[in-house]
Amino acid sequence: MEIEKRAKSSEEMDGQKQPITTQHPRGGIRTLPFILANELCDRFASAGFHGNLISYLTQELNMPLVAASNTLTNFGGTSSFTPLIGAIIADSFAGRFWTITVASLIYELGLLSITVSAILPHFRPPPCPTQVNCQEATSSQLWILYISLLLTSVGSGGIRPCVVPFSADQFDMTKTGVASRKWNLFNWYFFSMGFASLSALTIVVYIQDNMGWGWGLGIPTIAMLISIIAFVLGSPLYKTVKPEGSPLVRLAQVIAAAAKKRNETLPEDPKLLYHNRELDAPIALEGMLLHSDQYKWLDKAAIVTEEEARDSSSTPDLWKLATVHRVEELKSIIRMLPIWASGILLITSSSHLHSFVIQQARTMDRHLSPSFQISPASMSIFSVLTMMSGVVLYERVFVPFARRFTGNPSGITSLQRMGIGFVINIIATVVAALIEMKRKSVAAKFQLLDDPKAIIPISVFWLVPQYFLHGVAEIFMSVGHLEFLFEQSPESMRSSATALYCITTAIGNYLGTLLVSLVHKYTGNERNWLPDRNLNRGGLDYYYFLVSAIQVVNLVYYLICARFYTYKPVEETRERNKEEDLEQANEHVSSNNLKDGGGKEEKIGVTKDE
């Protein structure tokens, strides 16, 4: 009776409160048009800017192929390192909304400056149609390019680590919430980005090759401005998560506390370690991390000494005493690192492939009709189309089919998804080597090996199979990698986890530059694998076989890491609330039984899985 009365009174109170609450909750599906509009325009601008930039450097600034490729790869690496800084700023004090907004403005400045340099002839060397003995860009002309690329790199640093976490902030991302939805946020994020890239690689690249670089770079600049406006217009609807201090400081506090208590003895029962739900509540909105048995030396940071036990009323010094949740945050990051690192060599192997394939396509027959030919950079649309259609098929066909056998709401785990991607990527690179062998054999047959400007009578569509395979690999590897980092990182560090995804690209790009430079330096002058001007006399196929071998070694490393990986243990907030409600119900029923003098014992139990 007492429970019923309390339930009725609470219902009456809720009924009285309902008319007062007229404000709609923030977040949800209605925010996606604004976020995706921003992302579509942003990716359209980025793809239009970077997709054909190798042609701008080699054809307009007359840079040698290896120097141009290394320049783009180095700045690609820089733009993938800056997200760590952006993530720290967002998670520490600025928040994701303002970080994205300010970074977008910086990116816009970079696009604007390179567009101006493309319009004004003073900022470019004289044209060189023959591509022989060309006058290269002066140092002052290159500095305009470098400043523009640096601004876009800094802008990317604020946008890339925050977009996915900010999108996820609008939804319930607990296990229960994810399982209740019939769609995957990461799949549809990549689908949207693919659609924007496809538009840029068809429209913008065509304009760059046929109407000039002023319009070709001006359109991405305008698109980026539209993306900023769309994003800001949706601000009244967004759910924003208040930053709770630098996550790196919390990790440092755990390490410092563990080091200071290195001589303390761990209790046999982990429940005796320091727990403080009230302190950890702002950084554990979706659930508390549970204690795990790995890296026990870090548990010493949560040992409560006699002195700290006596002073339990005051807020603890977090440089001397850390909660179990904060210790487990650090453990989660440490567990993720070996899997995260497996993406580095994959990027190393593929960082220059896009630039080289564009140069291959430039020497091949690109006619779709007698009067129209496809742009070399637009060949990437086949990879993007594969990725876009593949994401839909993965979501609607593969996941339901795999779920029947695995019981996993996602079909397969993110680790399994990454492993499949690694294998497909190796196959794609081997296929690329075989196609390059075919291209050179046709050039030799028609005695065109010594003419770098000649169009070899072989269709450019021979390159489609490798683009198709790279697109399939991205569905599994790229989406799986980002999903893994997002799911397994502490929820308060998701911007930092997304930054880790970007840093994989950064380190991989820098190592890719080193690899290309070493190959270019040590493969001789006569038959250099990566020549500056004449790709027909090169050994690009040997380079492809080399990076395939690197990927095989990386796959073995990944399989070992995945075999021994332990998923983070988490107690979801819903589960906790459910247990607390049932505990209270147990107490009420027990008290009623005692009052009524009933001889029957009523047991209400629940397990976490229920």
UniProtKB/TrEMBL annotation:
<dbReference type="GO" id="GO:0016020">
    <property type="term" value="C:membrane"/>
</dbReference>
<feature type="region of interest" description="Disordered">
    <location>
        <begin position="575"/>
        <end position="610"/>
    </location>
</feature>
<dbReference type="InterPro" id="IPR036259">
    <property type="entry name" value="MFS_trans_sf"/>
</dbReference>
<feature type="transmembrane region" description="Helical">
    <location>
        <begin position="455"/>
        <end position="477"/>
    </location>
</feature>
<feature type="transmembrane region" description="Helical">
    <location>
        <begin position="374"/>
        <end position="394"/>
    </location>
</feature>
<keyword id="KW-1133">Transmembrane helix</keyword>
<feature type="transmembrane region" description="Helical">
    <location>
        <begin position="143"/>
        <end position="164"/>
    </location>
</feature>
<feature type="region of interest" description="Disordered">
    <location>
        <begin position="1"/>
        <end position="26"/>
    </location>
</feature>
<feature type="transmembrane region" description="Helical">
    <location>
        <begin position="415"/>
        <end position="435"/>
    </location>
</feature>
<feature type="transmembrane region" description="Helical">
    <location>
        <begin position="498"/>
        <end position="522"/>
    </location>
</feature>
<dbReference type="Pfam" id="PF00854">
    <property type="entry name" value="PTR2"/>
</dbReference>
<protein>
    <submittedName>
        <fullName>Protein NRT1/ PTR FAMILY 3.1</fullName>
    </submittedName>
</protein>
<feature type="transmembrane region" description="Helical">
    <location>
        <begin position="213"/>
        <end position="233"/>
    </location>
</feature>
<feature type="transmembrane region" description="Helical">
    <location>
        <begin position="542"/>
        <end position="560"/>
    </location>
</feature>
<keyword id="KW-0812">Transmembrane</keyword>
<feature type="transmembrane region" description="Helical">
    <location>
        <begin position="185"/>
        <end position="207"/>
    </location>
</feature>
<feature type="compositionally biased region" description="Basic and acidic residues">
    <location>
        <begin position="1"/>
        <end position="15"/>
    </location>
</feature>
<dbReference type="GO" id="GO:0022857">
    <property type="term" value="F:transmembrane transporter activity"/>
</dbReference>
<dbReference type="InterPro" id="IPR000109">
    <property type="entry name" value="POT_fam"/>
</dbReference>
<feature type="compositionally biased region" description="Basic and acidic residues">
    <location>
        <begin position="597"/>
        <end position="610"/>
    </location>
</feature>
<keyword id="KW-0472">Membrane</keyword>
<feature type="transmembrane region" description="Helical">
    <location>
        <begin position="97"/>
        <end position="123"/>
    </location>
</feature>
<comment type="similarity">
    <text>Belongs to the major facilitator superfamily. Proton-dependent oligopeptide transporter (POT/PTR) (TC 2.A.17) family.</text>
</comment>
